[in-house]
Design goal:
The chain is of the alpha/beta class. It folds into two domains: 327 residues, no CATH class; 155 residues, no CATH class. The protein has 19 helices and eight strands. The strands form two sheets. Strands 5-4-6-8-7 form a five-stranded mixed sheet. Strands 1-3-2 form a three-stranded antiparallel sheet. Strand 2 and strand 3 form a beta hairpin. Helix 7 runs parallel beside helix 9, helix 8 packs parallel to helix 10 and helix 9 packs antiparallel against helix 12. The protein is elongated and about 90 Å long. The mean pLDDT is 91.
Length: 506
């Protein structure tokens, strides 16, 4: 069969695979402002789309609002300013900027879906391009993209509006651009050098906007650029607009240029967390990427393992995994490996380079020419089956269905509760702030509040009071902490909706 025909056939297969994966993502991505992270990012995006930095507090009416701490009105994903007159988002501005920009093109409801589809497809293409740079045949490089796209963690983060997928895409783009800028250009190709360096700076700036810890890219970028001061100038110029934007945004919201909305998180980092987290990573990296990823450990010992590209990628892998190996939350559960998701494409590439090395060495010695390719396909098929099996085990494809409960609860309340109602909640607080105009009150911020007086005042003003609670909130004693008599109105899967009954007459 002629080589040109094979090339055309391969391109059509890739195009078909890309369209099928995009359709799969479209059917499974949750666009809802749910929980803490998703609602925080989407609420922040709405503010940016309006050209606003501060979110308004919805206070209790009249005397009921007296002596109430500002945190009482603070939905998840926000921080009330010390003056107590407004709130600011706590999450980094990168993802909200992407969502706001996409909302202008596709609408607010579809923005999270299209941002994630573009980011996921771009991450797959960048991994393919990096594989080709390393000399992998097109089929092997495409296999790397499949391993990334079907990884349970990659799918799980692609199915929700969170920053991990976007962080992975922009860090891959920054690394690829830096490697292209660092290539020794032939005569007359100096223009490509500065263009790729400029692009590398812009991609790095966007990566840091999405997740501030992506400043760890500094080390691999230095390795990639080599000792060419001109390249660093273009790199800095590419990143300057995004650094300026980040500094302005931080100063506007938090009063400091170099800060985040998370506050002081130093207590979450400690050397004592390392043994548990290292064991957690050792268990779940092969669990999520299949045991094939263990082959990545052999790359440093291969001839091609000492080339510049792999040194650059290792200079990214080591600080990223090392940094989060001391972060308490990294070891909580399997999907908290999301913090090191940007390392997964590098691990996949290294594993494939090892497998391809031994495939090529064994091929001339194999008794049957078809045997090495058949074993390679078997290895790939086993790895993909492993990933699909774990995705089914974790019910990753059901994520959107589970998150839809947040919107359903908000819609039910809008249909059955008066517009002036007060809704006590915690888990759905960011959701209700986004989808409704109800007064959102945090039941977990009642310390120091005289609840009897509070509810007496609300009752005197004939303000209806409701509560929307998840099972863990009931177990934490939400209704007991609120006090009084409550009647359950309905249950929407995990969400229970309650109404406070009038106090008995004395």
């Amino acid at each position: 069969m002629p080589a040109p025909f094979l090339a055309r056939h391969f391109r059509w297969l890739c195009a078909l695979g890309l369209m099928l994966y995009a359709a799969y993502l479209f059917c499974h991505i949750s666009p809802y402002a749910s929980g803490s992270d998703a609602s925080g990012y989407i609420n922040s995006a709405r503010l940016l789309a309006r050209g606003e930095f501060f979110a308004a507090i919805r206070p209790l009416p009249g005397q009921a609002g007296e002596n109430i701490p500002p945190q009482f009105y603070q939905p998840l994903g926000f921080r009330v300013l010390p003056q107590g007159r407004a709130m600011v988002p706590t999450y980094p501005v990168g993802l909200p900027l992407h969502l706001a920009a996409m909302a202008a093109l596709a609408g607010r409801d579809l923005a999270p879906i299209f941002v994630n589809i573009v980011a996921a497809l771009a991450a797959g293409w960048l991994l393919y391009a990096l594989g080709r740079r390393q000399g992998l045949p097109a089929g092997w490089a495409a296999a790397g993209t499949l391993l990334l796209w079907l990884c349970p963690l990659f799918c799980f983060m692609a199915f929700q509006p969170m920053s991990d997928l976007l962080a992975t895409t922009w860090t891959l783009a920054a690394l690829y651009a830096a490697l292209r800028a660092g290539d020794s250009p032939p005569e007359g190709a100096k223009a490509n050098e500065w263009r790729w360096a400029l692009a590398g700076g812009a991609c790095t700036g966007l990566a840091v906007l999405v997740r501030p810890t992506n400043i760890l890219l500094a080390l691999p970028l230095v390795v990639a650029m080599g000792w060419r001061p001109r390249r660093y100038l273009w790199l800095a110029l590419g990143g300057l607009p995004f650094a300026t934007l980040l500094g302005f945004y931080n100063y506007k919201l938090h009063g400091q240029i170099v800060t985040t909305g998370y506050g002081d998180v130093s207590s979450a980092f400690s050397v004592r967390f390392f043994p548990h987290i290292a064991a957690h990573f050792a268990r779940w990296i092969p669990g999520l990427l299949s045991p094939l990823v263990v082959a990545a450990l052999a790359v440093p010992f291969l001839p091609r393992g000492r080339n510049r590209d792999l040194v650059v990628l290792a200079a990214w892998l080591a600080p990223l995994i090392g940094f989060y190996s001391f972060y308490y939350h990294s070891g909580e559960t399997w999907w908290y490996l999301r913090f090191i998701l940007p390392a997964f494409p590098v691990l996949i590439l290294a594993a494939l380079l090892t497998a391809h090395h031994f495939h090529e060495r064994w091929k001339p010695q194999a008794p049957r020419a078809w045997l090495p390719p058949a074993l390679a396909l078997l290895l790939l098929g086993s790895a993909l089956s492993w990933e699909i099996g774990w995705s089914r085990h974790f019910h990753v494809a059901d994520f959107m269905k589970g998150e839809s409960i947040y919107l359903a609860a908000a819609q039910w309340m809008q249909a059955h509760a008066p517009a002036d109602a007060v809704v006590f909640c915690m888990q759905v607080s960011g959701t209700f702030y986004y989808y409704t105009d109800f007064i959102v009150a945090r039941w977990d911020s009642l310390d120091g509040v005289d609840t009897r007086q509070l509810f007496h005042s609300l009752e005197g003003q004939k303000v209806p009071v409701f509560a929307v609670l998840f099972p863990f909130e009931l177990q934490d004693g939400a209704l007991k902490r609120l006090g009084g008599e409550w009647r359950q109105l309905t249950t929407l899967r995990a969400a229970t909706i309650w109404q406070r009954l009038p106090s008995p007459c004395p």
